[in-house]
Amino acid sequence: MIPSIKGTRDILPPESDLFLEVEGLAREVLHLYRFAEIRTPIFERTELFARSVGEATDIVSKEMYTFPDRDDTSLTLRPEATASVVRAYVAHRLWERASISRLYYIGPMFRRERPQKGRYRQFSQIGAEVLGSALPQVDYELLEMLCSLLERARIQGWELRLNSVGCVADRPRYLAALRAQLEPVLPSLCADCQRRAVSNPLRVLDCKVEQDQPIIARLPTLDAYLCGECTSHFAEVQRLLSAGGVPFTLAPRLVRGLDYYTRTAFEFVQSSLGGQNALLGGGRYDGLVEALGGPRTAGAGIGFAIGEDRFVMALQAARGATDAVFAGAAIFIAVPGAPQQTAALSLARDLRAAGWACEVGEAGRKLGRQMELAARSQARWALILGETEVSQGVVQLKRLADGSQRTVARPALFATLTAEVGAPGAAATWEGAGTV
Ligand code: HAM
To answer: Which of 184, 196, 227, 433 is the most buried (most CB within 10 A)?
Structure first.
């Protein structure tokens, strides 16, 4: 057997159903807020991430899957997609099509992190970016949208942690203060932080090493270093959130592990996730479009990415076992006699055409065995089609939970199924499934 790569995993049914459900729900909410999907390549030139995410970040300095192409161009499997969306925005001059671009994406990202529960080397994100407006109102609507997504998914126990990381003008003053405070304590910090303190002191605030935390807790926070415009931008975001009833907690040391952020930065953490409790994260990046060759005038941007694997974990925790949730309403057609195979296949085709999900048993297999298979396939109903049934133009409808059975005439079958099994399409347990 060839093992899979460390930190990757196979997502099997019924867990994969939850991924589909989350994606369907997210698409529905995103469309309500007028986002449209963008699909960018899974690999890009390495310099794209080095220039946007930042050379000194953990992601770029030690977590990227980077390899030379046959012509020696350095390529990287995307560790995140904001850089790619902004690259595409610039390449296609999207600001000429609409004053604001609202784009979303769903797909795999790759980071060579130490694998643990909720942290993988290939994971999936559902992300969105709003490009072309610096208004606090945009920040508000994005956060409100995320709350309504969590609400629709019935995920509870979340907390929105909010900060402002200021603009490029604020950064040097804050970094100087950080450096000054870090210098005397440098030898007590972890090796990574000793390096970060020199290359990019902001990243010291991302450190997760236990012994470093008391020192980090004493470092100056950004709020005292924000310029007037950044202060009022942040105040307005908070005012809108309060007015809109969106609960948040100020997190003055939240800087996020990517260099492109400016002003609003946020994370949603969720109590059931354990160590890797960040369900999603995001923020503003008003200088990134310009840094990647676009115009400053269309340059403001804000976005987020949900860790889809973690969102699914939170759903599982909220609902209990996925098997119970996804006990399908599917119909199993049992065909005890080989000659009835064609009739069974044609019945299945009619059912599917009308919108009922169904499975056909192996024609000619013993009825008892077919019933076992029906139970294992999680079907709730069986239709038995034997020689007598076909010759009399009827079927046996059996409820698998209690074994009760009755004869239904073929012409009345669809009406009976609608009454007993539910309307066609009701096989999906999630109310929004299939409507997107
Ligand atoms: P990020 O915080 O690096 O932000 O990732 C966003 C989310 O992806 C995290 O909150 C987490 O749920 C999930 N995630 C990250 N790494 C892993 C992993 N190794 N395994 C499982 N899940 C993971 C970004 O990626 C930014 N591009 C977000 C953004 C969009 N900012 C502005 N626009």
So the answer is: 196
Residues 44 and 157 in one domain: yes
Is residue 324 in some structural domain? no
Domain span at 364: 331-420
Atom of ligand 1 nearest to the CA of 82: 27
Q: What is the residue-wise DSSP string for 275-330?
A: TS-EEEEEEE-TTHHHHTT--GGG--EEEEEEEHHHHHHHHHHHH--HHHHT----
Mind listing the pLDDT tens digit for each residue in 184-222? 999 999 998 998 888 889 889 988 889 999 999 999 999
Of all protein residues, the one whose alpha carbon is nearest to atom 11 of ligand 1 is 307
Q: Nearest residue CA, atom 33 of ligand 1?
A: 303
Residue 156 and residue 40 share a domain: yes
| Verdict on whether the full-model pTM lies above 0.70 | yes
Q: Which residues line ligand 1 (CB under 6 A)?
A: 80, 82, 111, 113, 119-120, 123, 125, 127, 129, 257-258, 278-283, 303-305, 307, 309-310
Number of domains in the chain: 2
Q: What local confidence, expressed as pLDDT, does residue 207 receive?
A: 87
Tell me, yes or no, whether 120 and 248 share the same domain.
yes
Strand positions, DSSP E, 188-258: 249-250
With a CB cutoff of 8 Å and minimum separation 6, the contacts of 282 are 127, 142, 265, 266, 267, 302, 303, 304, 305
Task: Measure 271 CA to ligand 1 centroid, in angstroms.
Answer: 17
Closest protein CA for atom 31 of ligand 1:
282
CATH number at residue 34: 3.30.930.10
Domain's final residue, options 290, 318, 346:
318
Both 250 and 383 in one domain: the answer is: no
Ligand 1 pocket test, pick from 269, 280, 311, 313 with the greatest ligand atom count within 8 Å of Cβ, gives: 280
Tokens found for residue 168: 């490029």
